[in-house]
Amino acid sequence: MMEENLENWIILLDCTKSMNREDFPPNRFQTALSGIKIFIEEKSKALKKVRISIITFNKKISVVSELTDDVDSTIELISNKKFKKMNLSSGSINMLDNALNEALEILGQQIQNISGFYNCILLISDTEDLNISEKTQKKIKGLQISINIITFSLEKNNANMYFPLKAQHFTTKQDLLNGMKELALLKKKEKNNAQHFSEIMLEHGKKTRDFMEEIALKLRYPTLDELIKFNKKSRKINCQICFSKISPIKKYSLYKTGRLCPHCGTPMHLHCAGTWALKSSEHKGLFRCPYCYTLLKIPGAILNGLNKKSNKKEGSESKKQLVKMIVIGPEKLKQKYSDCLYCFKPIKNVSFQKTFQCSNCKAYFHKKCLEEMYKLDKKCLNCNGNIV
Ligand SMILES: [Zn+2]
Ligand SMILES: [Zn+2]
Ligand SMILES: [Zn+2]
Ligand SMILES: [Zn+2]
């Protein structure tokens, strides 16, 4: 859930030669720094928590200040004489794109690890002919990052080169400084309506989920040592969602379906994690580790199986789902998740062993496992469909 008072801001500052010009006295670069200083000061006064990072760009991209809530030291850094006298050099065609990608990398990690922050990029430049590639635009949209662009020069600008983003353009020093202050004080809701604010936040739905899924981490398999611990009754090692060794769903043991958070090593049953992911308010199918809040994902087939079961409860029992088991060639198995959902061991991409997939829930099964399952009760173990 998004809270109003937590914001991450990555400030991208143009450091190309033209920023030496003295038409915004003492020069464009120092005026931009004064604007940033005002922005940070106002932000930190207005918010419960704001984290700032500053990235400069010309031919080179430099993270001059890491993302931190210690705003005083960020201000100190940019007020430093040495910083103000920074060597401004010529730029390159891709510089803005590269700088944006650096910022997206930092924010992507933030999204992966912590929820509840509003993630923003502020670009300050004296040029309007900077390009943002389509790929980068898609990433910004997908991660739901808001981007604010401020440009300044003595000329009034006509063309908007940042299409489809809108820039706010200033022609005097005082207007620029006022604009920075205004931006810092804008409330989130107002931002959505503000003219210079991009339409990016308005896009929701599938695309966003795809990008979130891309940055979410897979649960990892236990190591041999961990497996032994999972199996020992005396040890107090349980699934951290249901707090027991045997999962309430399908009664799987931790030994069989226990997986761990790749970040902190918290153990949980695959199906417990899946149930949790389906209830997730942030993005359906993704969830956060109960211990360290890392964004995690669950194999789609497990989610399908859990979904099908809950549908079945509501419907009448007479409706029997018929499923086919389809042979899958090795080339299709290159997909990220290829666990057999009978034995819960990975399906190796070997051509001499046949693999099958349930037509209903898309679960994969080893040939041997499918045969055992068929002998048992002729049902797909993952979705309960009757095998025909
Ligand atoms: Zn569990
Ligand atoms: Zn964790
Ligand atoms: Zn198997
Ligand atoms: Zn199935």
TrEMBL record:
It comes from the Archaea. SUPFAM superfamilies: vWA-like. Pfam families: VWA_2 (PF13519). InterPro entries: PKC_DAG/PE, VWF_A, vWFA_dom_sf, Znf_RING/FYVE/PHD. SMART domains: VWA (SM00327). This is VWA domain-containing protein. It comes from Promethearchaeum syntrophicum.
